[in-house]
Amino acid sequence: MINIENLTFGYHKKQMVLENLNLHIKPGHIYGLLGRNGAGKSSLLHNICGLLFPNTGTCQVAGKIPARRSPEFLQNVFLLPEEIYLPNVSIKSYLDIYAPFYPEFSRDMFFKFLKEFEVPKENKLQNMSYGQKKKVMISFALATQAKVLLMDEPTNGLDIPSKKQFRKIIAGVIKEDQLIIISTHQVKDLDSLIDFVLILEDNKIILHEPVDRITDKLAFKQVMSLDEIAAVIYSEGALKGYAVVAINHKQEPSRMDMEIFFNAVLTEKQQILSQFN
Amino acid sequence: MDFNNTQAIYLQIADYVCDKIQLEQWREDEKIPSVRELAVILEVNPNTIMRSYEYLQQNEIIYTKRGMGYFTQPNAAKKILKTRQEQFMAEELPQLFKKMQLLNIPVSQLQASYEQFINTKN
């Protein structure tokens, strides 16, 4: 559904943010896009939705070229940015203005999500708190039923019960012909939803793997002492001993710790990546 | 649901389903929640629930009826009990023995404690 080949992009000629980036992804999954600050996650999302254009290379999304910004394309993609600016109108007028751009928009879904988030629907948008605005935009994004949904730090600003609600809503809406990319640093909020991991580093996607395959290849464990376990690639001191990423020689099923995995990829890049070749 | 940090989520979900069946909250040979419904309840990706259900099907705990969803096997509770007994004997008991040996607690001492536990529970 997204086919990116040799994409290069930069804000200045001398410094490229993305370089020869390749990415091919299919619908029916929730992708977690991870990367350091300034790695280019937002730039990539903006290239996917047609807000930024590649310098060289090709980007094709849902069969269209995003940079051409054709209506058929724009109807089927929605970007929820990290920072949101909303006009000073009521929720209802906002819907009247923006919902018609999305033929599949479902008002029923929108109001159902608002209710689940406990946002009063009579409010004016600018009188709302950051977290409430965010909930309105999440509800809007999902109600468009766009085939490609891009979310930049969606759980930032959400309170604890709303994060739970967010997970329930996403689990309930994702369809087989739909694709969600969530760019996040709050991996603990979302690691039960994400089933594919994308890591952006060194100006390209260095890792693109389903969570299942990561736990096939690597074992995530807590041990008292590092002698207890063979083939350790990466370890972090934890309250009780160590949190460890090791080669999964014994084919044991374990639960991926996304935070530790991310740290492991950044510090032991070659060793981790060689497991997936 | 709170998942623990070490076991694969799909296995923890399979365990959750087995608990429901063993506690008779989900009855034998009756319909269980759809993949989507359970994904919402447990706040996980539907693909993960799918993997748990496939695993439970392979282990003959649940089965599908075409177009009607997933059902528990008629003898599911018995099967789960047997599997869990075997698992206890093979995995948890050796751990307990190891600790008993370390703390120098003889097996004979357990009999009285166990009886007391059962009595207070009833």
Textual characterization of the structure:
The complex is a heterodimer of chains A (about 280) and B (about 120). Helices cover about 30% and strands about 25% of the residues of chain A. Chain A contains ten helices and twelve strands. The two termini of chain A are about 25 Å apart. The model of chain A has no long low-confidence stretch (mean pLDDT about 95). Chain B has two domains: about 10-75, Arc Repressor Mutant, subunit A (Orthogonal Bundle); about 75-120. With about 120 residues, chain B is mainly α. Helices cover about 65% and strands about 5% of the residues of chain B. The mean pLDDT of chain B is about 90. Chains A and B meet through helix 6 and strand 10 of A and helix 1, helix 2 and helix 3 of B.
Describe the protein's topology.
The complex is a heterodimer of chains A (277) and B (122).
Chain A: E1 2-9, E2 18-25, E3 30-34, H1 41-49, E4 56-61, H2 71-74, E5 77-80, H3 91-98, H4 107-116, H5 130-143, E6 148-152, H6 160-173, E7 179-183, H7 187-190, E8 196-201, E9 204-210, H8 211-217, E10 218-223, E11 232-238, E12 241-247, H9 258-267, H10 269-274
Chain B: H1 9-22, H2 35-42, H3 46-58, E1 62-65, E2 69-72, H4 76-103, H5 108-121
Antiparallel strand pairs in B: 1-2
